[in-house]
Design brief:
The complex is a heterotrimer of chains A (221), B (216) and C (216). Chain B is an alpha/beta fold. Chain B has helices at residues 53-60, 82-85, 104-115, 122-128, 144-156, 174-190, and strands spanning 13-24, 27-38, 43-46, 68-75, 78-79, 89-92, 162-166, 192-196, 208-211. The model of chain B has no long low-confidence stretch (mean pLDDT 88). By secondary structure, chain C is mainly α. Chain C has one domain.
Chain lengths: 221, 216, 216
């Protein structure tokens, strides 16, 4: 029953999103602006690939901040959280929103990477390795962001709380992702990426488990 | 999971509230509220605006955890757990909002599927609350009266044994008021009814009354 | 009893301060007298980690019990942990200047303590963004625990990726201590005294917070 409910919630999120097109409009604009600003900042300078990759992940962090926090904040603002609470237990809500955030985040991240390749001259040698790192890293990224945005949605003043809370928690993940993607950009083989991949997977498992267990305390008043 | 209602004994469903106390930062909302409700004794909760009626209802329906005290729902002697309650309690209140982007029917259908595996004639439900013509329109386009009617549909969609209403006739016109009246009448033979309101007309059928002001 | 404890801590800390600066230390290349900072840097870093761990345990306890005093304990531990973390960062920066020539160079160990500082800061920001006491306690406890589970990653994992200049990291790969015996004694006493000092301050802070709570 839990997974069925989670699936229902996931599909509902997608439905609402397709109707409001929030992500399609605001997020896309946000990403385009970010990528452009970086393009102008770099200018004609020949820049190290490592730096461009680093800037990529900075853009990812802030774009995710803009996109992922919506799922919970919207429920609190529109006060639909009460109807949801009356209808189902906390765990399906967490899973449904987590899954939605994952899909949203992955689409956003792929979009950003593609833009960086096209516009900001990001050079990748080992594509398979790079994309696997992006996929696996996404799990951890979304797990942390989801629980933190749930926490923030309950606070009275939310504006700048997300970066403050999320950054320390995400640093290990970001460091690993950046390091691993740099390796992949420079042509490291998949074998060489395995230690980082292990870190990404364990981070995702640990944070998702902890969030799942703690979500009830955040969601229930 | 709503069993055949005809075969229910008179005191088979109860809500028991024991020593409920709650406070927010600005002070105590109420202290040591205790009462019991069954099919024979629909309850009215009265009190001035802002006195804590809605808070009490939110605690009873499990939306807020109280500082102290218990709320126990029983069906045929068995205490209901959180999961059971989702498809047996209907809360009809102006602060229960639905999704702006979904249509009236989509909203009801979505929450219905979350709450119960049973199939229900939701079209009929929309007719009952007088929204059959606007069922396909998005919730955000509804007038405040229509929104209130949809909230009623939301509460009724699981055929609740425990129907709890907070200011039920808010925003309703005469027709809406009739619908609420008939729903109240039906609930009296189906299960438990709790109404929080200050309007005598809302509380006509209630047998016991609690005034929040007595529990400060 | 409390007085005896306080006197003990006073004596210990004073002796550490005196001995730390006066007892001759053997020749340490490139550092010389400046190595004395070891007596203060490591204990403060150690205490900030102990405090963090304690606050996480109290957070878990609070979520299970709902007792507001447990949350105060978590808050007090965090407050002191923050203070000691700040001291550890500053003394660490001094040591960095002595050994490596720069106050800060984003060495993984330095970065780790900085991240711990950020986590503490985030905890306090979150608390100040919530007005309701129970919500504040609940949400900051959850954050405390989430932050804690990510700590092993940057303590053990990050330094494995990037080479660190930091001497003998916490998980000592060689398993041996290469300190002169006199220095070692002073060092251990310092570690003990700072830990006891922390507990003294924790007790004070907790009592203060309890009084503040009573006042409300």
């Amino acid at each position: 029953m839990m997974f069925k409910s989670a699936l229902l919630i996931f599909r509902n999120e997608i439905k609402c999103e397709l109707r409001t097109r929030y992500a399609a409009n605001s997020l896309v604009m946000f990403i385009l602006v970010t990528v452009s600003i970086i393009r102008f900042a770099i200018g004609e300078e020949k820049t190290e690939n490592e730096i461009i990759n680093g800037l990529l992940w900075v853009s990812v962090f802030f774009s995710n901040a803009a996109g992922i926090t919506r799922t919970f904040v919207k429920e609190e603002e529109k006060e639909t959280s009460l109807s949801l609470k009356l209808s189902t237990l906390p765990h399906p809500v967490f899973l449904g929103k987590l899954f939605y955030n994952f899909v949203l985040s992955f689409v956003v991240n792929v979009f950003i990477v593609v833009l960086f390749i096209a516009v900001n001259d990001l050079r990748i040698e080992n594509h398979y390795g790079f994309w696997i790192v992006v996929l696996l890293g996404n799990f951890g990224l979304v797990a942390s962001s989801t629980i933190i945005s749930a926490i923030i949605s309950k606070a009275d003043s939310r504006s700048s709380l997300y970066p403050v809370l999320a950054f320390p928690v995400l640093i290990p993940l970001l460091v690993s992702i950046i390091f691993a993607t740099n390796l992949a950009c420079n042509g490291a083989t998949f074998q060489e990426l395995i230690p980082e991949v292990q870190i990404l997977i364990s981070y995702a498992v640990v944070v998702t488990t902890a969030s799942f267990m703690l979500f009830g305390f955040v969601w229930n008043d | 999971m709503s069993p055949s209602l005809d075969i229910l004994e008179m005191d088979e469903v109860t809500i028991k509230v024991e020593n409920l106390s709650h406070s927010f930062n600005n002070g105590v909302v109420f202290k040591n509220v205790s009462f019991s409700v069954d099919k024979n004794s629909p309850l009215a909760i009265t009190g001035p605006n802002g006195s804590g009626k809605s808070t009490l209802l939110k605690i009873i329906t499990g939306l807020i955890r109280p500082l102290n005290g218990n709320v126990t729902f029983t069906l045929k002697g068995k205490t209901l757990n959180e999961s059971d309650k989702k498809n047996m309690i209907g809360l009809f209140a102006p602060y229960v909002n639905l999704y702006d982007e979904l249509s009236g029917l989509e909203n009801i259908s979505y929450f219905h599927k979350l709450r119960t595996k049973e199939r229900s004639d939701l079209q009929a439900l929309m007719r009952k609350v007088g929204l059959e013509n606007s069922a396909e329109k998005p919730f955000k386009s509804y007038s405040s009266g229509m929104k209130q009617r949809l909230r009623l549909a939301f509460a009724l969609s699981v055929n609740p044994l425990f129907l709890i209403m907070d200011e039920p006739t808010t925003n309703l016109d005469e027709e809406g008021y009739e619908v609420v009246s008939s729903v109240i009448g039906e609930q009296l033979s189906k299960g438990i009814l709790i109404i929080a309101s200050n309007l005598k007309s809302d509380l006509r059928h209630c047998v016991q009354t609690i005034n929040i002001g007595d529990f400060k | 009893m409390r007085l005896a404890f306080q006197i003990l801590v006073f004596v210990l800390i004073s002796s550490v301060l005196v001995a730390g600066f006066s007892v001759p230390i053997p020749f340490i290349p490139a550092l010389g007298e400046k190595a004395r900072i070891l007596y203060f840097h490591v204990p403060t870093a150690w205490v900030s980690v102990v405090a963090f761990f304690m606050s996480m345990l109290y957070s878990i306890k609070y979520l299970r019990s709902g007792d507001p005093v447990t949350d105060l304990k978590s808050f007090s531990a965090n407050s002191l942990g923050f203070l000691f973390c700040l001291l550890a960062t500053l003394t660490g920066a001094l040591w960095a200047k002595f050994s490596w020539g720069a106050f800060w160079n984003w060495d993984p160990r330095q970065t780790s303590i900085f991240i711990l500082l950020l986590i503490y800061g985030a905890y306090f920001s979150l608390r100040s963004a919530i007005n309701d006491e129970r919500k504040k306690a609940r949400l900051s406890s959850v954050y405390s625990i989430i932050a804690f589970v990510t700590v092993p990653f940057f303590v053990f994992v990050v330094p494995r990726i990037v080479e660190t200049l930091h001497p003998d990291p916490i998980v000592n790969t060689e398993g041996k201590l290469k300190m002169d015996s006199v220095m070692f004694v002073i060092f251990i006493v310092s570690l003990l005294s700072f830990t006891l000092l922390y507990f003294w301050m924790f007790d004070l802070k907790l009592r203060l917070e309890k009084l503040k709570l009573k006042e409300k």
